[in-house]
Amino acid sequence: xxxxxxxxxxxxxxxxxxxxxxxxxxxxxxxxxxxxxxxxxxxxxxxxxxxxxxxxxxxxxxxxxxx
Length: 67
Prior knowledge:
The chain is mainly α. The chain has one domain. It has 3 helices and no strands. Helix 2 runs antiparallel to helix 3. The longest helix is centred in the C-terminal third of the chain and has 27 residues. It starts with a helix and ends with a helix. The mean pLDDT is about 90.
């Protein structure tokens, strides 16, 4: 997910997105552990996407508390 896409989402939508992405990431890891058909690159991209959304969420929370 691109940063431009994240700017249009609200804080609650970002929180929901992080939760959804974490669940999907956990499923990817489990599927890779059971049968290594899942690409490790996909797991890496998923982890980085979660970090991107979490960073945007944290930045917004800091901006909101500073006001």
